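Entry 14. Two folds queued back to back today. First construct below, sequence then C-alpha coordinates.
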Amino acid sequence: MKLLKYAGFFPWVLIGSLIGSAFVVPMVSNLIDKFYYKEKYNKNTAMFYKQYKDNSYIIKVSMPNAESKLYLHNVDREKYPLYERFDTTNDSRNYFNNPSADYTSFYCKEYKKYMNIIAFKDVNGSYGEKELYLTVNRDDMNNPEYGTKDNPVPVLKAVGVSEPIWFSGKDTDSVFMDNFYRNNVINYLKYKMPKEEFERRFKKGK
Protein backbone atom coordinates (compact mmCIF):
# COMPACT_ATOMS: atom_id res chain seq x y z
CA MET A 1 0.00 0.00 0.00
CA LYS A 2 2.85 2.34 0.76
CA LEU A 3 4.21 1.81 -2.74
CA LEU A 4 0.88 2.79 -4.25
CA LYS A 5 0.71 5.78 -1.98
CA TYR A 6 4.01 7.18 -3.16
CA ALA A 7 3.64 6.12 -6.80
CA GLY A 8 1.62 9.23 -7.52
CA PHE A 9 4.62 11.37 -6.66
CA PHE A 10 6.95 9.51 -9.02
CA PRO A 11 7.82 11.57 -12.16
CA TRP A 12 6.53 9.00 -14.67
CA VAL A 13 6.14 11.55 -17.47
CA LEU A 14 9.70 12.76 -17.04
CA ILE A 15 11.05 9.21 -16.97
CA GLY A 16 9.05 8.33 -20.10
CA SER A 17 10.36 11.41 -21.89
CA LEU A 18 13.94 10.56 -20.96
CA ILE A 19 13.55 6.97 -22.16
CA GLY A 20 11.98 8.16 -25.40
CA SER A 21 14.70 10.72 -26.01
CA ALA A 22 17.53 8.37 -25.11
CA PHE A 23 16.39 5.18 -26.84
CA VAL A 24 13.24 5.35 -28.96
CA VAL A 25 13.94 8.49 -31.03
CA PRO A 26 17.54 7.50 -31.94
CA MET A 27 16.40 3.96 -32.75
CA VAL A 28 13.67 5.20 -35.11
CA SER A 29 16.11 7.64 -36.72
CA ASN A 30 18.66 4.87 -37.26
CA LEU A 31 16.03 2.61 -38.82
CA ILE A 32 15.02 5.38 -41.25
CA ASP A 33 18.67 5.91 -42.19
CA LYS A 34 19.18 2.16 -42.68
CA PHE A 35 16.11 1.40 -44.74
CA TYR A 36 15.50 4.70 -46.57
CA TYR A 37 18.57 6.87 -46.91
CA LYS A 38 20.91 3.93 -47.46
CA GLU A 39 18.98 3.01 -50.61
CA LYS A 40 17.95 6.53 -51.65
CA TYR A 41 20.95 7.32 -53.86
CA ASN A 42 23.08 5.41 -56.37
CA LYS A 43 26.05 3.48 -55.03
CA ASN A 44 29.67 3.02 -56.13
CA THR A 45 29.47 5.87 -58.62
CA ALA A 46 33.23 6.53 -58.51
CA MET A 47 33.86 3.34 -60.48
CA PHE A 48 31.71 4.67 -63.36
CA TYR A 49 33.34 8.11 -63.57
CA LYS A 50 35.70 7.11 -66.40
CA GLN A 51 32.90 5.52 -68.42
CA TYR A 52 30.86 8.73 -68.19
CA LYS A 53 33.90 10.92 -68.89
CA ASP A 54 35.06 8.90 -71.89
CA ASN A 55 31.64 9.31 -73.47
CA SER A 56 31.71 13.09 -73.07
CA TYR A 57 32.95 15.89 -75.30
CA ILE A 58 33.36 19.67 -75.36
CA ILE A 59 31.09 22.19 -77.06
CA LYS A 60 31.43 25.96 -77.39
CA VAL A 61 28.50 28.25 -76.54
CA SER A 62 27.78 31.92 -75.94
CA MET A 63 25.89 32.58 -72.72
CA PRO A 64 23.02 35.11 -72.45
CA ASN A 65 23.29 38.20 -70.26
CA ALA A 66 22.44 37.79 -66.59
CA GLU A 67 18.92 39.26 -66.90
CA SER A 68 17.90 37.19 -69.92
CA LYS A 69 14.72 35.09 -69.86
CA LEU A 70 16.79 32.35 -71.47
CA TYR A 71 17.87 31.53 -67.90
CA LEU A 72 15.05 29.46 -66.42
CA HIS A 73 15.43 30.91 -62.92
CA ASN A 74 14.61 34.34 -64.40
CA VAL A 75 11.33 32.88 -65.65
CA ASP A 76 10.28 30.94 -62.53
CA ARG A 77 12.72 30.71 -59.64
CA GLU A 78 10.42 28.47 -57.60
CA LYS A 79 10.14 25.86 -60.35
CA TYR A 80 13.74 26.22 -61.50
CA PRO A 81 15.80 26.80 -58.35
CA LEU A 82 19.42 27.84 -58.31
CA TYR A 83 20.27 25.41 -55.54
CA GLU A 84 19.47 21.95 -54.19
CA ARG A 85 20.54 20.07 -51.05
CA PHE A 86 20.48 16.27 -50.87
CA ASP A 87 19.46 14.76 -47.53
CA THR A 88 21.65 11.81 -46.56
CA THR A 89 20.33 11.18 -43.03
CA ASN A 90 17.26 11.65 -40.88
CA ASP A 91 19.36 13.61 -38.40
CA SER A 92 18.46 17.29 -38.89
CA ARG A 93 21.69 18.31 -37.14
CA ASN A 94 23.57 17.06 -40.21
CA TYR A 95 21.72 19.43 -42.56
CA PHE A 96 24.68 21.66 -43.42
CA ASN A 97 26.94 18.65 -43.94
CA ASN A 98 24.69 17.23 -46.64
CA PRO A 99 25.94 17.58 -50.24
CA SER A 100 24.48 20.40 -52.30
CA ALA A 101 24.55 21.56 -55.91
CA ASP A 102 24.23 24.92 -57.65
CA TYR A 103 22.26 25.06 -60.91
CA THR A 104 22.38 27.39 -63.89
CA SER A 105 19.65 26.24 -66.29
CA PHE A 106 19.42 28.03 -69.64
CA TYR A 107 18.35 27.67 -73.25
CA CYS A 108 21.32 27.10 -75.55
CA LYS A 109 20.66 28.70 -78.94
CA GLU A 110 23.57 26.94 -80.63
CA TYR A 111 22.23 23.46 -79.89
CA LYS A 112 18.56 24.34 -79.43
CA LYS A 113 18.44 22.54 -76.10
CA TYR A 114 17.97 23.47 -72.47
CA MET A 115 21.09 22.81 -70.44
CA ASN A 116 21.93 22.89 -66.76
CA ILE A 117 25.42 23.76 -65.51
CA ILE A 118 25.72 21.78 -62.28
CA ALA A 119 28.36 22.44 -59.62
CA PHE A 120 28.69 20.45 -56.40
CA LYS A 121 31.23 23.06 -55.29
CA ASP A 122 30.56 26.79 -55.07
CA VAL A 123 31.86 28.31 -58.30
CA ASN A 124 31.61 31.90 -57.07
CA GLY A 125 31.72 33.43 -60.50
CA SER A 126 29.64 34.58 -63.45
CA TYR A 127 28.53 33.02 -66.74
CA GLY A 128 26.71 36.04 -68.16
CA GLU A 129 27.63 37.05 -71.73
CA LYS A 130 30.73 34.87 -71.78
CA GLU A 131 31.89 32.30 -74.30
CA LEU A 132 32.20 28.94 -72.61
CA TYR A 133 33.52 25.49 -73.28
CA LEU A 134 30.96 23.06 -71.84
CA THR A 135 31.64 19.38 -71.25
CA VAL A 136 28.54 17.32 -72.05
CA ASN A 137 27.83 13.61 -72.25
CA ARG A 138 27.11 12.11 -75.69
CA ASP A 139 24.27 9.88 -74.44
CA ASP A 140 22.58 12.86 -72.80
CA MET A 141 22.91 15.01 -75.91
CA ASN A 142 21.56 12.27 -78.20
CA ASN A 143 18.66 11.35 -75.92
CA PRO A 144 15.47 13.24 -76.94
CA GLU A 145 14.28 13.01 -73.33
CA TYR A 146 17.07 15.43 -72.41
CA GLY A 147 17.24 19.07 -73.44
CA THR A 148 13.76 20.09 -72.29
CA LYS A 149 12.86 22.67 -69.66
CA ASP A 150 12.03 19.93 -67.16
CA ASN A 151 15.03 17.78 -68.03
CA PRO A 152 17.95 19.90 -69.29
CA VAL A 153 21.18 18.35 -70.51
CA PRO A 154 23.55 18.19 -67.50
CA VAL A 155 26.79 20.14 -67.91
CA LEU A 156 29.39 19.04 -65.36
CA LYS A 157 32.29 21.21 -66.44
CA ALA A 158 32.31 24.77 -67.76
CA VAL A 159 35.35 26.94 -68.42
CA GLY A 160 35.78 30.30 -70.07
CA VAL A 161 37.06 30.49 -73.64
CA SER A 162 38.97 33.76 -73.32
CA GLU A 163 38.29 34.82 -69.71
CA PRO A 164 37.75 33.00 -66.41
CA ILE A 165 34.30 32.15 -65.05
CA TRP A 166 35.47 31.88 -61.46
CA PHE A 167 36.29 35.20 -59.82
CA SER A 168 39.37 33.48 -58.38
CA GLY A 169 40.45 32.36 -61.87
CA LYS A 170 40.56 28.71 -60.72
CA ASP A 171 38.95 27.50 -63.92
CA THR A 172 42.19 28.33 -65.74
CA ASP A 173 44.00 25.71 -63.62
CA SER A 174 43.68 22.44 -65.57
CA VAL A 175 44.67 20.22 -62.61
CA PHE A 176 42.10 21.88 -60.37
CA MET A 177 39.39 21.61 -63.03
CA ASP A 178 40.14 17.93 -63.67
CA ASN A 179 39.57 17.24 -59.97
CA PHE A 180 36.50 19.46 -59.94
CA TYR A 181 35.05 17.62 -62.94
CA ARG A 182 35.72 14.18 -61.44
CA ASN A 183 34.04 15.16 -58.17
CA ASN A 184 31.14 16.70 -60.10
CA VAL A 185 30.54 13.58 -62.18
CA ILE A 186 30.69 11.23 -59.18
CA ASN A 187 28.25 13.36 -57.19
CA TYR A 188 25.93 13.85 -60.17
CA LEU A 189 25.75 10.10 -60.77
CA LYS A 190 25.19 9.44 -57.08
CA TYR A 191 22.70 12.12 -56.07
CA LYS A 192 21.09 13.52 -59.19
CA MET A 193 20.77 10.83 -61.87
CA PRO A 194 17.54 8.83 -61.38
CA LYS A 195 18.20 5.34 -59.99
CA GLU A 196 16.43 3.59 -62.87
CA GLU A 197 18.54 5.43 -65.43
CA PHE A 198 21.74 4.79 -63.51
CA GLU A 199 21.02 1.06 -63.37
CA ARG A 200 20.20 0.96 -67.08
CA ARG A 201 23.22 2.95 -68.25
CA PHE A 202 25.92 1.63 -65.99
CA LYS A 203 24.90 -1.67 -64.41
CA LYS A 204 22.84 -3.44 -67.02
CA GLY A 205 24.43 -6.79 -67.80
CA LYS A 206 27.04 -6.46 -65.04
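Second construct, same run, same settings:
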Amino acid sequence: MIVQGVSIGDMLNQSMTVLTKPSVQSFEQFERRGGQREALIYVGVAAALAGIVGGVFGLLTGGIGGLIGGLVLGIVGPLLSFFVFSFRVYTIGKSQGGTGTQDEVFYTTSLYTAPILAVTGIVNAIPLLGCLLLPATIVLGIYQLYLGYLATRSSMNLQQNPAIITVVGAIVAMWIAGAILTFILAAVGLGAAAASGALNN
Protein backbone atom coordinates (compact mmCIF):
# COMPACT_ATOMS: atom_id res chain seq x y z
CA MET A 1 0.00 0.00 0.00
CA ILE A 2 1.35 3.42 -0.99
CA VAL A 3 0.21 6.53 0.93
CA GLN A 4 1.49 9.91 -0.25
CA GLY A 5 4.45 8.18 -1.90
CA VAL A 6 5.30 6.20 1.24
CA SER A 7 5.36 2.40 1.02
CA ILE A 8 3.48 1.23 4.11
CA GLY A 9 4.33 -2.38 3.19
CA ASP A 10 8.08 -1.70 3.28
CA MET A 11 7.82 0.07 6.62
CA LEU A 12 5.67 -2.76 8.00
CA ASN A 13 8.37 -5.25 7.02
CA GLN A 14 10.96 -3.11 8.80
CA SER A 15 8.64 -2.98 11.83
CA MET A 16 8.41 -6.76 11.91
CA THR A 17 12.22 -6.94 12.07
CA VAL A 18 12.57 -4.55 15.02
CA LEU A 19 9.58 -6.08 16.83
CA THR A 20 10.76 -9.67 16.50
CA LYS A 21 14.51 -9.04 16.76
CA PRO A 22 14.72 -6.12 19.18
CA SER A 23 18.22 -4.65 19.34
CA VAL A 24 20.07 -1.43 18.70
CA GLN A 25 21.50 -3.05 15.57
CA SER A 26 18.02 -3.88 14.22
CA PHE A 27 17.00 -0.23 14.44
CA GLU A 28 20.30 0.93 12.95
CA GLN A 29 19.55 -1.05 9.78
CA PHE A 30 16.62 1.23 9.00
CA GLU A 31 17.28 4.60 10.67
CA ARG A 32 18.19 6.27 7.37
CA ARG A 33 15.49 4.66 5.22
CA GLY A 34 13.15 7.60 5.76
CA GLY A 35 12.49 10.72 7.78
CA GLN A 36 9.91 12.69 9.71
CA ARG A 37 7.44 12.82 6.80
CA GLU A 38 7.42 9.04 6.30
CA ALA A 39 7.17 8.49 10.04
CA LEU A 40 4.15 10.79 10.45
CA ILE A 41 2.35 9.17 7.51
CA TYR A 42 3.03 5.67 8.86
CA VAL A 43 1.83 6.52 12.37
CA GLY A 44 -1.06 8.49 10.86
CA VAL A 45 -2.27 5.39 8.96
CA ALA A 46 -2.14 3.34 12.18
CA ALA A 47 -3.94 6.08 14.12
CA ALA A 48 -6.59 6.33 11.40
CA LEU A 49 -7.31 2.59 11.67
CA ALA A 50 -7.67 2.84 15.44
CA GLY A 51 -9.66 6.08 15.15
CA ILE A 52 -12.15 4.61 12.69
CA VAL A 53 -12.82 1.63 14.94
CA GLY A 54 -13.10 3.96 17.93
CA GLY A 55 -15.45 6.21 15.99
CA VAL A 56 -17.72 3.31 14.99
CA PHE A 57 -18.02 2.03 18.56
CA GLY A 58 -18.38 5.62 19.78
CA LEU A 59 -21.29 6.09 17.39
CA LEU A 60 -22.94 2.91 18.66
CA THR A 61 -22.62 3.89 22.31
CA GLY A 62 -22.73 7.68 22.26
CA GLY A 63 -24.24 8.84 18.98
CA ILE A 64 -22.63 11.57 16.90
CA GLY A 65 -20.74 12.93 19.90
CA GLY A 66 -19.26 9.48 20.50
CA LEU A 67 -18.29 9.21 16.84
CA ILE A 68 -16.47 12.55 16.89
CA GLY A 69 -14.84 11.80 20.24
CA GLY A 70 -13.67 8.37 19.04
CA LEU A 71 -12.18 9.81 15.87
CA VAL A 72 -10.44 12.71 17.62
CA LEU A 73 -9.06 10.62 20.50
CA GLY A 74 -8.09 7.81 18.14
CA ILE A 75 -6.32 9.95 15.54
CA VAL A 76 -5.26 13.31 16.99
CA GLY A 77 -4.19 11.97 20.39
CA PRO A 78 -1.76 9.30 19.14
CA LEU A 79 -0.29 11.60 16.47
CA LEU A 80 0.28 14.36 19.03
CA SER A 81 1.83 11.88 21.47
CA PHE A 82 4.11 10.46 18.79
CA PHE A 83 5.26 13.90 17.65
CA VAL A 84 5.92 15.19 21.17
CA PHE A 85 7.72 12.02 22.25
CA SER A 86 9.93 11.88 19.14
CA PHE A 87 10.75 15.59 19.20
CA ARG A 88 11.69 15.46 22.88
CA VAL A 89 13.83 12.34 22.32
CA TYR A 90 15.72 14.40 19.78
CA THR A 91 16.08 17.56 21.89
CA ILE A 92 16.79 15.83 25.20
CA GLY A 93 19.07 13.35 23.44
CA LYS A 94 21.07 16.25 22.01
CA SER A 95 21.50 17.66 25.52
CA GLN A 96 22.79 14.23 26.61
CA GLY A 97 25.46 14.25 23.91
CA GLY A 98 23.49 12.46 21.20
CA THR A 99 24.55 12.89 17.58
CA GLY A 100 21.51 11.62 15.68
CA THR A 101 19.20 13.63 13.46
CA GLN A 102 15.54 14.48 13.92
CA ASP A 103 14.67 12.39 10.84
CA GLU A 104 16.44 9.35 12.29
CA VAL A 105 14.61 9.69 15.60
CA PHE A 106 11.16 10.07 14.04
CA TYR A 107 11.68 7.21 11.60
CA THR A 108 13.04 4.68 14.10
CA THR A 109 10.36 5.59 16.64
CA SER A 110 7.61 5.10 14.06
CA LEU A 111 8.77 1.55 13.28
CA TYR A 112 7.59 0.24 16.64
CA THR A 113 4.96 2.87 17.45
CA ALA A 114 2.73 2.39 14.39
CA PRO A 115 2.08 -1.37 14.63
CA ILE A 116 1.64 -1.31 18.42
CA LEU A 117 -0.66 1.71 18.11
CA ALA A 118 -2.80 -0.04 15.49
CA VAL A 119 -3.20 -3.16 17.63
CA THR A 120 -3.77 -1.50 21.02
CA GLY A 121 -5.89 1.29 19.54
CA ILE A 122 -8.28 -1.16 17.88
CA VAL A 123 -8.41 -3.48 20.91
CA ASN A 124 -9.05 -0.63 23.38
CA ALA A 125 -11.74 0.85 21.12
CA ILE A 126 -13.83 -2.31 21.52
CA PRO A 127 -15.11 -2.18 25.13
CA LEU A 128 -15.39 -5.92 25.96
CA LEU A 129 -12.26 -6.88 24.04
CA GLY A 130 -10.31 -4.07 25.72
CA CYS A 131 -11.19 -5.44 29.17
CA LEU A 132 -10.40 -9.06 28.26
CA LEU A 133 -7.03 -8.22 26.74
CA LEU A 134 -5.96 -5.63 29.34
CA PRO A 135 -3.09 -7.80 30.71
CA ALA A 136 -1.73 -8.31 27.17
CA THR A 137 -2.04 -4.57 26.49
CA ILE A 138 -0.05 -3.79 29.66
CA VAL A 139 2.70 -6.23 28.63
CA LEU A 140 2.76 -4.68 25.15
CA GLY A 141 3.09 -1.23 26.74
CA ILE A 142 6.11 -2.37 28.76
CA TYR A 143 7.63 -3.89 25.61
CA GLN A 144 7.05 -0.58 23.83
CA LEU A 145 9.10 1.20 26.53
CA TYR A 146 11.96 -1.21 25.92
CA LEU A 147 11.76 -0.66 22.16
CA GLY A 148 11.75 3.10 22.78
CA TYR A 149 14.97 2.74 24.74
CA LEU A 150 16.60 0.69 21.95
CA ALA A 151 15.40 3.08 19.22
CA THR A 152 16.72 6.05 21.21
CA ARG A 153 20.13 4.44 21.63
CA SER A 154 20.20 3.73 17.89
CA SER A 155 18.89 7.00 16.48
CA MET A 156 20.70 9.32 18.90
CA ASN A 157 23.85 7.17 19.31
CA LEU A 158 23.59 7.20 23.11
CA GLN A 159 24.89 4.90 25.81
CA GLN A 160 22.59 3.28 28.38
CA ASN A 161 22.15 5.96 31.05
CA PRO A 162 21.78 8.98 28.72
CA ALA A 163 19.26 6.96 26.68
CA ILE A 164 17.20 6.16 29.78
CA ILE A 165 17.21 9.82 30.86
CA THR A 166 16.15 10.84 27.35
CA VAL A 167 13.27 8.35 27.17
CA VAL A 168 11.97 9.24 30.64
CA GLY A 169 12.03 12.96 29.81
CA ALA A 170 10.24 12.35 26.51
CA ILE A 171 7.55 10.25 28.23
CA VAL A 172 6.89 13.01 30.78
CA ALA A 173 6.53 15.55 27.96
CA MET A 174 4.16 13.19 26.12
CA TRP A 175 2.00 12.73 29.23
CA ILE A 176 1.78 16.50 29.75
CA ALA A 177 0.73 17.00 26.12
CA GLY A 178 -1.88 14.25 26.51
CA ALA A 179 -3.26 15.84 29.66
CA ILE A 180 -3.54 19.21 27.93
CA LEU A 181 -5.36 17.64 24.96
CA THR A 182 -7.74 15.80 27.29
CA PHE A 183 -8.47 19.03 29.18
CA ILE A 184 -9.16 20.90 25.93
CA LEU A 185 -11.48 18.16 24.63
CA ALA A 186 -13.32 18.01 27.96
CA ALA A 187 -13.78 21.79 27.95
CA VAL A 188 -15.06 21.70 24.37
CA GLY A 189 -17.41 18.84 25.25
CA LEU A 190 -18.80 20.64 28.28
CA GLY A 191 -19.19 23.84 26.24
CA ALA A 192 -21.05 21.98 23.50
CA ALA A 193 -23.29 20.28 26.05
CA ALA A 194 -24.06 23.58 27.77
CA ALA A 195 -24.81 25.25 24.44
CA SER A 196 -27.05 22.35 23.42
CA GLY A 197 -28.92 22.56 26.73
CA ALA A 198 -29.34 26.31 26.36
CA LEU A 199 -30.65 25.87 22.83
CA ASN A 200 -33.10 23.19 23.94
CA ASN A 201 -34.46 25.45 26.64
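Quick look at the second one. The beta strands are 2-3, 6-7. The mean pLDDT is 87.
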